[in-house]
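Obj.: predict assembly geometry.
Materials: sequence records (below).
Method: joint structure prediction, all chains together.
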Amino acid sequence: MIKFSHVTKIYKNNTRALNDVTFSIDHGEFVFIVGSSGAGKSTIIKHILREETATNGSIFVNSYNLNKIRRRHIPKYRRSLGVVFQDFRLIPDMNVYDNIAFALRVTNIKNSDIKRRVPYILNLVGLTSKARCFPSQISGGEQQRVALARALVNNPSIIIADEPTGNIDPELSFEIMDLLKEINKCGTTVLVVTHEHDLVKKIKGRVINIENGQIFSDSKDQDWSKYGYE
Amino acid sequence: MAMNSIGYLIRQGIRNTINNGVMSLASVGVLFSCLLLIGSSVLVSLNLNNIISDIEHQNEIVVFLNDDISEEQTDNISEFLSNKDFIDVFEFITKDEALEKHINITGNNKSLFESLKDDNPLPDTYNIVLSDLSEIEDFIEELENFDGVEKVNAPVEVANMIVSIKHTIGIAGIVVVFVLLLVSLVIISNTIKLTIYNRKKEINIMKFVGASDIFIKLPFVVEGIFIGLMSAVLSYLVLWQGYNYLILKMSEVDLQWVSNIYNNIILFKDYNLYILAGFSVVGLFIGLLGSSFFVRKYLKV
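Observations (raw structure tokens):
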């Protein structure tokens, strides 16, 4: 599903953001990537999104070799992922409904399918009544649920959430995490980047700890108790 | 790309133009001003050319022939003249016709010329009017080499001056239009760049939900076309009304030089299709090129 093999990333200014990173995530896993800021968490996400390419090593996601993928195949590849960002990244002049529908439109899907699918997803995240609101008219937690709905609407095989709770209240954070857990139960792989240990403790999942661009620990190989689990 | 997507993207482009009202208005304003300036300078240079052409047509070359010229030699000259395409009109005037003319125009001194009828001192002549003065010197030289030609009288200096004025106006016109086009391109590309920069985030979001480049670009291109065409139509209408208003005002002025210009002024309706087509092409070209070129920069994510 996601496979990093000896990935090193050196930026033009000689910063070594990732150093020989190797891990793999299987289908249906719920994985946290944790670490202090600047550790390389976001760099990993950028590589999975094919925003960056590895200097050395190889990355495979959903059977795409990201080092060799052709530019024109990138959009199709990205549609197989659902992404949620800390700053929500909703299009400000589109209402909630259109923001979600947009992710479907880029796939050239039929209008009738859009009309069926968007209300279903809105219902799932509990925002049916806000469909005609613009992002500026709803709360942070609601915006994040819209972003989540947009990430889900294409039935992606992987959901990637980059600090999804960074900009919202703690209570709402758990709500979002519960939603992610529900999604994971239906078989979708979920990858959450966070620095909030409370969240990690509450939800059982695999924890990959990144420090200084290297994998410091991976709970898959270690004792769960270290992370506060019984 | 599916048809329902194209419909959606075109609607999206038009919606964006309206949503980004201030920026769209700024782009239309800039393009409109540039087109208006370009159109005005084209009209000014067309008019100057027309006035110069009018002066050009007032030239006359007179070829004096020898008294003993043979019919064959006259035919040779006639044939030579008929084959020159820069000659507007030429006329062979016999010595008798010339004398008759003089008698008619001299009025009081008629008897003086009438006495010459038996021994007419005037030569046969060719009177030639050129439509293009640029080759006048070579032409005169060729004429002088013909057998039977005694002398050629021509306003060579005036002709050369007119040719060089025309030349200067032509070049100046092209330079002015070119500079204006360049300036417009720079200003417009900055405006478009700013518009697109404002929506950099939006483009970035589109990329991450898996929109293809063309899917992102098309609404911007539609927006560019829309703005380009709107500016073209607007500047055309203003130029048309403004020019006709100016002509109307000129007809009311009672000054010799103004009415001289007025008599030679070109009519907007003779050029309206070219101007509209030119504006549309420039508007479309700048709108289309500007939008698709600058979006590309933000697509590299």
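Conclusions so far: The first strand of chain A starts at residue 2 and ends at 10.
To do: check interface contacts against the pulldown list.
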